[in-house]
Design brief:
By secondary structure, this protein is α+β, with helices and mostly antiparallel strands. It has helices spanning 3-51, 131-139, 178-185, and strands at residues 73-78, 83-88, 90-91, 94-101, 104-109, 118-124, 148-153, 164-171, 198-204, 210-217, 236-237. A hairpin with a 5-residue loop joins strand 9 (198-204) and strand 10. Mean pLDDT is 79; it is low at 2-12 and 14-66. Keywords: Membrane, Transmembrane, Transmembrane helix.
Length: 239
Amino acid sequence: MNKSHLFQVILFMLFLTVPAVFYLVRELSIKDGNSQSGSYENAVVVEEKEMLPVQETSPSVPEEQEELPEPGQKKYVSEILGIGFYYLENQGNQTISIHESGNKVYVNYDSSEPESGQYVEIFAKSPDDTLVEAVEKRLLSGYSEEDCEVYVVDTGMDQYPDTYEKVNIRVAPEWEDMQEFFRLYENCPFRYTQSNGISYFLGDSEHSDKFLFFSIGQYGISASAEGTKGWQDTIEFLD
């Protein structure tokens, strides 16, 4: 083979090799580009996921708990008589004591005699009778209607439930001075007739088998630190 023929063979081989090399380089570049492009897209997706807003949820609210008594406040419950009430145990330099005897519960200072001072008295009642009828039957039997009468007291100023009803016994005739009043007062049931101190009867339509009588007098025994409620204002009728 002469030199001229050898040179032609070499040129022919180069002609076949160069396009193949070019094609191989181009394919590798495309694959590398696709690989880089795919990695970038994945990075963008991850970044978008991190930027998604967190869904806000309302915090769980605990159920409302029963209101606790005030500091120093106690509750007295008589299961036998079917009543309950609150009172402040310490008032000033005095301590309040409770004494239950028969159908009465006494509320007074511990320096006093147990069966003195303020009290609530519990009476049995026919469910068919109104409170007025029950008081008349129980306490005005044998008394003249011209001397004593039962009347309904407005409970608007009180803090009692709507089912409570309040009545009182009063001297029926008109009187001009206290001397005449006390003379007429003798014709009505002693202690149960309204005079110059606080006293009244109380009933509850949801507990129609009993009614109460309060003898409070001219001073208060508080059930709240603010002094806005007396113990009698917190009375509850119990089953």
